[in-house]
Amino acid sequence: MGFLDKVKDAAGKAADQAKHATAVGKEKLEDVRLQKKINDLCQEIGALVVAQKRNEAPQDASAQIDAKVAEIAEIEKQMEANDIAGADGSTEPTEAAS
What we know:
about 80% helix; 2 helices; mainly alpha
């Protein structure tokens, strides 16, 4: 293998590593965004519970809480799927939660 072939091979490997690092960074950024969404939902649930305890909650507070808990469960499933996809080396994008 000639010198230029070695340089090309090294450059190709460096480009692959950079692509992988970028994909990992995007996954981590997505996880942070999803975790913030979970934290926001937990805060909303907490506010509803406090309002319930003070008898100031809307009539559908329990339904709102249930919906938020279900949304948290869906986000956690997505985060778990992202972790599994990242662990197997896949760089395919995953579906984002809205």
